[in-house]
Design goal:
By secondary structure, the chain is α/β, with parallel strands linked by helices. The chain is built from seven helices and seven strands, in the order ααββαββαβααβαβ. The protein has a seven-stranded mixed sheet with strand order 3-2-1-4-5-7-6. The longest helix is centred in the last third of the chain and has 17 residues. The radius of gyration is 16 Å and the shape is globular.
């Protein structure tokens, strides 16, 4: 991975996504979490203190292990048991069908290479009455901002370790077989639309 991907970029992400404003977004997104939870893109565990009391146990999935001292401290402070797995979310997950009450993704769907495969796996392990909670950035609504996102995406992909600016998150989720239940679209104050267009919502398994 290298020094940049293992240390510098994670610190940059901590600085940006660890703000009080982003914590409020996390709390809003995760308010419906309950029971057995699977979180993909666990990262450095910034979500741990944003979950409600209804969460009983969490499995955090990530393809990389970064800033481990911080991660250990956050896990130790979590009010529920936390298990971490180093695994690509698009691979076959080591869980039976319909295993989790809640699956969660925050600022992660932008960087999964095989996104539809990962989302289909989330659908497989989610219980029929469960919820998929998401908080993501993605394609802007306006034509100017979206064209700029498309133009800048190759550079973003390089400097942000695989992050894509121009994914239409709701289409990706529905295309993988989910049915979106709630969706808010807004822009983070003070952040350019290319980076700060947010999709916050919940979805259920399609056909349920």
């Amino acid at each position: 991975m290298g020094v940049y991907a293992d240390h510098i970029f994670p610190l940059m992400m901590e600085s940006g996504l660890g703000s009080a404003l982003h914590r409020r977004y996390r709390q809003q997104a995760l308010g419906g979490a309950r029971g057995q939870v699977l979180e993909i893109g666990f990262g450095t565990g910034l979500n741990l203190l944003c979950y409600p009391p209804e969460v009983e146990r969490l499995v955090g999935l990530d393809s990389a292990s970064v800033l481990q001292a911080r991660v250990r401290r956050r896990i130790a402070a979590a009010p529920f048991p936390v298990e971490r797995l180093k695994r690509d979310a698009a691979d076959r997950l080591p869980f039976p069908d319909e295993h989790f009450d809640t699956v969660v993704s925050t600022w992660t769907l932008c960087s999964i290479a095989r996104l539809r495969a990962a989302l289909r796996e989330l659908g497989r392990v989610l219980r029929p009455e469960g919820e998929f909670l998401f908080l993501e950035h993605g394609l802007a609504d306006g034509p100017v901002a979206s064209r700029l996102q498309n133009a800048l995406n190759p550079l973003q992909n390089l400097v942000a370790c695989g992050c894509n600016l121009n994914r239409k998150i709701d289409d990706e989720i529905e295309g993988a077989g989910f049915r979106i239940s709630t969706l808010e679209r807004f822009h983070v104050p003070g952040v350019p639309r290319t980076l700060g267009t947010v999709y916050l919502g919940s979805a259920s398994r399609g056909g349920v």
